[in-house]
Amino acid sequence: MKVSDLLKNTQKTLFTFEILPPLKGGSFVEIQRIIEPLLEFAPSYINVTSHRADIAYRKKPDGETERVLIKKRPGNAGVAASVKFKYGIEVVPHVICAGFTRDQIEDELIDFHYLEMENLLVLRGDKMRSELMFIAENGGYAHAIDLLKQVQNMNRGVLLHSETEVVTPTSFSCGVAGYPEKHSDAPNFEQDLHYLKEKVDAGADYIVTQMFFDNTKYFEFVRRCREIGITVPIVPGVKPIATASQVDVLPKLFNVTLPEPLEHALRLCKTNADAKNVGTEWLIAQAKELKQANVPAIHIYTFGIPDNVVKVCKSVF
C-alpha cells in the first residue's frame, strides 16, 4: 500500500521508524535486532536509509598517499526487500542524489520496481565530510527536485534514454524532506519553503521533517507550509537522544537546536545512561503532544538503537 494513502486515510496517529543498512560485512540479524522489538507497536511502514561513499586516504607500500572512495554501508535495495517480504510491512527505501549518477539512480529505481517497492523517500543526501558545500556527482543531480522529476518520468513510462523501450510505467509514491529549522544550505526560511513547495508541485505526496526537539517549531513549520498552499501530509520526524555527547553533536550535524531545559538536563548527566533516560523522557513528552495534535504519523529515527524507542512506544502508542 502507498504511504501517501496510509497518511491521508488514517484516523489515528501512525507509528513509523527508520533503520540503517548494516555496515559492510554485517547481516540481516542486525536489522532483526532493531525491528523485532518494535513489531508489537504495529509500525505502518519502515524507512531504509541510503548512504554515499566517502573519501579516505591510505598510504601505499611506496609511502605515497592514495585517495579512495569507501562505502561503509551497501545498497538498501536488498535490505528493503528482505524487510518487506519477511515482515509484511511497507518499506520506504531512500533514494539520494549524493554520490550517484542519473543512470545509477535509474538502475536502482528499476530494481525497486522489480522488487515491488512502490514507496520512496527522495533526498539530496549529505555532502562529503571533506566538502565545504554539496557537490553533485558528475552526471548526477545537485537538487532533490531533479531526482524527483526523474522518478515522475518513470511513473509516466519514460526512461533516460529514448532508445530504451519501456514496457511498464512505475507507480512510485514519493516523500520528501522538510526542515522545521531550515535546511543548512538555504539562505533563509522563506526560500527553503519555496524549494519545498516546488518539490510538492513536482509530485511529492508527503513530507517527513528533519528531527526537532521543540514541538512549537514543527507546528509553526506546518502553519507556514499551509499558508503557501502545501496541502500534503507533514510527518514529524523525531529522535530520542541516546548519549551525552549528542548535546553538542546533533545541533552541529543536523542544524537543529535543543531547548534550554533539555540541554541543561543533558549537561547535568554524568553517564550516557543518564543522558539516554533524559532523552527518552523528553521524546515521550514530545510524542504525546504530537499525538494529541492528531499528526498523521510519528516517525522515529532509531539510529540503530531500539530499546529507547520501545520505551517511547509503550508510553505513546
Overall mean pLDDT = 92
What is the number of E strands?
Answer: 11
* Named CATH topology: TIM Barrel
Helix fraction bin: 25-40%
The level-1 CATH class: Alpha Beta
Kindly report the oligomeric state of this protein.
single chain
Shape: globular
Largest sheet: 9 strands, parallel
Number of helices: 11
CATH architecture name = Alpha-Beta Barrel
Measure the end-to-end span. 22 Å
List the helices and strands and how they pair.
Elements: H1 3-9, E1 14-19, H2 28-35, E2 45-48, E3 54-59, E4 65-70, H3 77-87, E5 90-96, H4 102-114, E6 119-123, H5 144-155, E7 173-178, H6 189-201, E8 206-209, H7 215-227, E9 234-235, E10 237-238, H8 246-254, H9 260-267, H10 272-292, E11 297-301, H11 307-316
Helix pairs in contact: 9-10, 10-11
Summarize the structure in short.
The protein is built from eleven helices and eleven strands.
Structure characterization notes:
The chain has helices spanning 3-9, 28-35, 77-87, 102-114, 144-155, 189-201, 215-227, 246-254, 260-267, 272-292, 307-316; strands at residues 14-19, 45-48, 54-59, 65-70, 90-96, 119-123, 173-178, 206-209, 234-235, 237-238, 297-301. The chain is an alpha/beta fold and 317 residues long. It has one domain: TIM Barrel. The protein has a nine-stranded parallel beta sheet with strand order 9-8-7-6-5-2-1-11-10, sandwiched between helices. Strands 3-4 form a two-stranded antiparallel sheet. Helix 9 packs antiparallel against helix 10 and helix 10 (272-292) packs parallel to helix 11 (307-316). The radius of gyration is 20 Å and the shape is globular.
